[in-house]
Design the sequence.
């Protein structure tokens, strides 16, 4: 099963190109688009070291750190419920 989440266009930096996160059975996929091109990152669940959520009144920011030592993946402007679903899905896939 695969589920896609998109950051809100009403939040900082997401007006024209909202971030997308896809939870798939094999890995988590991140897509950050910009005017010329995009950045895509795919991280296997066993490589995720930690997940951090910063919640505001309406929106939440999520930061995912990997065990490989690369820069954390940061997505801002997600609805709070979506950020919690992403965190729960990562935990579920890591447990097996």
Sequence:
């Amino acid at each position: 099963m695969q589920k896609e989440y998109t950051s809100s266009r009403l939040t900082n930096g997401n007006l024209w190109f909202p971030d997308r996160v896809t939870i798939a059975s094999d890995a988590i996929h991140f897509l950050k688009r910009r005017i010329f091109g995009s950045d895509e990152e795919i991280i296997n669940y066993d490589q995720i070291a930690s997940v951090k959520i910063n919640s505001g009144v309406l929106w939440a920011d999520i930061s995912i750190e990997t065990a490989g030592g690369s820069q954390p993946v940061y997505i801002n402007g997600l609805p709070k419920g979506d950020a919690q679903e992403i965190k729960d899905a990562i935990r579920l896939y890591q447990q097996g």
